[in-house]
From TrEMBL:
<dbReference type="GO" id="GO:0008270">
    <property type="term" value="F:zinc ion binding"/>
</dbReference>
<dbReference type="InterPro" id="IPR050421">
    <property type="entry name" value="PPR"/>
</dbReference>
<dbReference type="InterPro" id="IPR032867">
    <property type="entry name" value="DYW_dom"/>
</dbReference>
<dbReference type="Pfam" id="PF01535">
    <property type="entry name" value="PPR"/>
</dbReference>
<dbReference type="InterPro" id="IPR046849">
    <property type="entry name" value="E2_motif"/>
</dbReference>
<dbReference type="GO" id="GO:0048731">
    <property type="term" value="P:system development"/>
</dbReference>
<dbReference type="Pfam" id="PF20430">
    <property type="entry name" value="Eplus_motif"/>
</dbReference>
<dbReference type="Pfam" id="PF14432">
    <property type="entry name" value="DYW_deaminase"/>
</dbReference>
<dbReference type="InterPro" id="IPR011990">
    <property type="entry name" value="TPR-like_helical_dom_sf"/>
</dbReference>
<keyword id="KW-0677">Repeat</keyword>
<protein>
    <recommendedName>
        <fullName>DYW domain-containing protein</fullName>
    </recommendedName>
</protein>
<feature type="domain" description="DYW">
    <location>
        <begin position="609"/>
        <end position="703"/>
    </location>
</feature>
<dbReference type="InterPro" id="IPR002885">
    <property type="entry name" value="PPR_rpt"/>
</dbReference>
């Protein structure tokens, strides 16, 4: 009777009650001891581990010859985190059963020690189907070429009778997919006569993990009677595609599935994620609001979606709602919150919210590299560096984030120094792009050349980064040689030519811009949106060189074709509130005060010798406009003015701009910082500018 109750509690995830019942028993038998170890394994706490050790020392020695007890004891030790003691017990056991091997192999996998699982598997002469499942799981966890070779070797040696085991086939398919051997998995799947939903699921999941979402959808269309797992995978595939067709499929399937499926929190989370990533945030918000039992995962999917559509304020507002509803944030939630703060880029707002992160979370790698990124993007390299230097062994992402942090803040020399300290095993495409960008922002062309030459596998992004560096420094001939080198065995890249156009814009070289743009039109005749950006850059180059008429002609053509250029927006946080401005914006309730402050700032600028540069006006002036009013209406000027209206004696202002800072705004901001004795930090699309009170900028006018 005691045993029945204890077993029932364990099966219903009430292990603590099973332990309470155990404490009422004077002389537990072997079955009861088995159950108490199972209960402790379910709890996975230090207290449970202490109880396991206490009981294992007190039970009669004869109990230790019971393989079932040894198996459950091994399982409890591993799940409670004491792998060393589990290994010691296993090694001391003379009669090792298949179940004992299985318990310790499973424990290794759960503790991300797949190599140990494989080593143990090699010691087994006749593995059963369960051990083969665990072996394939270990190989799937490793995802290496060596693991793939082992999967192929073992699968070719297993008895033919095993191949009728659908569970084994599911694990095998999963391992092949995770080791990126899609062809082998497809061949095996196609040959299987009795395909189960689990096998379909393994294939769909594998396609998604290998960025082949369309194949996952094709497979879904072959399934007649799907289960909840398959629906989740379909929504994940649609979320990966992010197309209008994928959105239609999401809506169709979500309307057709049984109502009972909508009570599954995992389905709701994947559905919401798919809606957000396919661009239907309204429907996602409606689903979220209708959901009565909101899980932490649902909050996370919503926050992640808001961040993806660059709406960080909604993420922070949702975080506030969580606190009001007494929902405790986990690591994933705080990662989303930190990502939102990175997008906003305001120090004081970041500081106020980071104080709410539990201290225990700061040792988590994901939180650490998110914080490095956040402090870097808010212009506080010192705080990012402080976190980085406390890391005992920085990982690849943390090194790359810190290099990016130095680079975007104009500290190219520090970025290079850290790059050469980075373990060579960590160097990948992302790291190379970050360090080349850091060189580009600081004008360290020779360092960039040296790093580029040392890279063995040069990708499109790496070529783009070095060509941007060379073009920014006006080494156009050298940039062209690299373009020719790249195109010798690659298709032409729009990004590469955009770098050249941007460099030509910097030196107002309309001839080079036109030549580059004409060549792009030939190369990318089928392209639309990317060439819109190219046409805007060309028009801006003509305008900056004084040919307003030519610039207007290009813009007229864009207008007639229905293509729109990206609107410039500047955001700022004032007294804890987020504000966003566009050029000549009058939507703010205190616009009159803002424009009065703009005029006041303009008068101060003129008084201190500022001359408005008409070359940065990239459109014809309206009848009532002047060069001064056109430039003073830029979103950056309005945001700065609002900061001073709200806080006349501000000593620090932060702005985030989605486009590159114009040259006149850059010169004006340097003067404003000096006149008002106010440090101004502006993060634009390319880098972060630190305007100091002595009238200088951290970029040294190289931007």
């Amino acid at each position: 009777m005691y045993g029945a109750l204890m077993k029932g509690y364990v099966q219903n995830n009430q292990a603590s009650k099973a332990i309470d019942i155990f404490n009422q028993i004077d002389k537990p038998d072997e079955i009861i001891i088995n159950l108490i170890f199972n209960a402790c394994a379910q709890l996975r706490t230090p207290e449970a581990l202490n109880l396991v050790n206490k009981i294992s020392n007190e039970i009669p020695k004869s109990f230790h010859s019971n393989s079932f007890i040894n198996t459950s004891l091994l399982d409890a030790l591993i799940k409670c985190g004491d792998i060393k003691q589990a290994e010691s017990l296993f090694d001391k056991s003379k009669n090792k059963t298949i179940e004992m091997y299985g318990a310790i192999m499973k424990g290794y996998i759960e503790n991300n020690q797949a190599n140990k699982t494989i080593d143990l598997f090699d010691r087994i002469k006749n593995p059963n189907e369960i051990l083969l499942n665990l072996f394939f799981s270990a190989c799937a966890q490793l995802k290496t070429l060596e693991a793939l070779n082992l999967v192929k070797q073992v699968s070719s040696e297993i008895p033919k009778s095993f191949r009728s085991n659908s569970i084994l086939m599911t694990f095998l398919l999963d391992a092949l997919m995770k080791c990126s051997d899609i062809e082998h998995a497809e061949s095996l799947f196609d040959k299987s006569k009795n395909k189960t939903l689990d096998m379909y699921g393994a294939m769909m999941k594998g396609y998604i993990q290998n960025n082949q979402a369309k194949k996952a959808i094709d497979l879904f269309n072959q399934i007649k009677n799907y289960n909840e797992v398959v629906i989740i995978l379909l929504f994940n595939a649609c979320a990966q595609l992010r197309t209008s067709e994928a959105l239609k499929l999401v809506n169709k399937v979500s309307n057709e599935i049984p109502k009972s499926f909508h009570s599954n929190s995992f389905i709701n989370t994947s559905l919401l994620d798919a809606l957000m990533k396919c661009g239907d945030s309204k429907q996602a918000e409606s689903l979220f609001d209708r959901t009565t039992n909101k899980t932490i995962e649902l909050y996370g999917a919503m926050m992640n979606g808001f961040n993806l559509e660059n709406n960080p304020i909604k993420t922070l507002n949702l975080f506030k709602k969580m606190k009001v509803n007494n929902v405790q944030g986990n690591i994933a939630i705080f990662r989303c919150v930190i990502k939102a703060l990175s997008q906003i880029g305001d120090y004081e707002l970041s500081q106020s919210i980071i104080k709410q992160v539990p201290n225990s979370f700061f040792v988590n790698n994901q939180i650490q590299y998110a914080l490095i990124d956040m402090w870097g993007k808010s212009g506080h390299v010192d705080l990012a560096k402080e976190i980085f230097e406390k890391l005992p062994q920085p990982n690849q992402v943390e090194y790359t984030n810190m290099i990016s942090c130095y680079g975007s803040n104009g500290m190219g020399a520090q970025a290079i120094e850290l790059y050469y300290k980075m373990p060579k095993a960590f160097l990948d495409e992302g790291t190379y792009v970050c360090i080349l960008n850091a060189c580009s922002h600081s004008g360290l062309v020779q360092d960039a050349r040296s790093i580029f030459q040392s890279i063995q596998m040069k990708t499109e992004k790496i070529y783009s980064a070095i060509i941007d560096c060379l073009s920014r420094a006006s080494f156009f001939e050298e940039a062209q040689k690299l373009i020719d080198e790249y195109e010798y065995d690659h298709l032409p890249s729009i990004v590469v030519y955009m770098a050249v156009l941007s460099g030509a814009r910097n030196i107002k070289n309309a001839s080079l811009s036109q030549k580059t743009y004409d060549h792009m039109k030939k190369l990318f005749s089928q392209s639309t949106n990317p060439l819109t950006s190219a046409a805007v850059l060309l028009a801006n180059t003509y305008a900056s060189s004084g040919d307003i008429e030519k610039a207007s002609d290009i813009r007229d053509e864009l207008h007639k074709s229905g293509q729109k250029k990206k609107m410039g927006l500047t955001s700022t946080v004032v007294n804890g509130e987020f504000y966003k401005f566009r050029a000549h914006d009058r939507s703010h309730p205190r616009s009159k005060e803002i424009y009065t402050e703009v005029k006041k700032l303009s008068a101060e600028l003129l008084q201190h010798g500022h001359q408005y540069d008409s070359s940065w006006i990239t459109r014809p002036l309206n009848g009532d406009e002047t060069v001064e009013s056109a430039l003073c209406g830029h979103s950056e000027r309005l945001a700065i003015a609002w900061d001073f209206v709200a806080n006349p004696n501000a000593s620090r202002i932060q702005l985030t701009n989605n486009l590159r800072l114009c040259g006149d705004c850059h010169r004006a901001t340097k003067l404003i910082a000096a006149i008002r004795k106010c440090k101004i930090i502006v993060r634009d699309a390319n880098r972060i500018h630190h305007f100091s009170t002595d009238g200088k900028c951290s970029c040294n006018d190289y931007f």
